[in-house]
Amino acid sequence: xxxxxxxxxxxxxxxxxxxxxAGADAIGLVFYPPSPRYLSTERAAEIRDALPPFVQxxxxxxxxxxxxxxxxxxxxxxxxxxxxxxxxxxxxxxFGLPYVKACRIRPGVxxxxxxxxxxxxxxxxxxxxxxxxxxVGEAFDWALVPFLKEKPVIxxxxxxxxxxxxxxxxxxxxxxxxxxxxxxxxxxxxAAKMAAFVAEVRNADA
Length: 206
Hints:
- By secondary structure, the protein is of the alpha/beta class.
- The protein has one domain: Alpha-Beta Barrel (TIM Barrel).
- The protein contains seven helices and ten strands.
């Protein structure tokens, strides 16, 4: 199986093109205002338009209201949504688009119990449990990821070219999601780091 790659927190059209050139399957556009990778809908549409065919856009939200999500869908037309906050299953499913639901992992968290109500999710994502939401570069103990068959698993949290192959061998996820691990500064992606990250994913698959 080929591990899918999403590069999240893209803020510039050139970075979107470089992600695609590196072999990313999808890019993430962040609509969480406290994030240094936050985008306006206009900027997000510009980034989307810079992508070549067959590279998906994923819009990421943290406890947004329905009106904000609907506005992004109407203006940006993402292929998929990604929810990282305390959104309910009904909230996530109301927009008519496939979605990914994230669970932040730490010892004692019942990840399966938390995620199982999200039956309509396209995939479940496992991320680090840190005070901030997303892109802080902190990994977690991959042994805490439960073995699941009912949904594709996406692994996130502190991934980089130095550890992603080990993470894939440990978890065997459907996909991996990286942000800070391929940056030169917050929100600024590094083309060489993105290419090296994808190359390590392919090495692990081989």
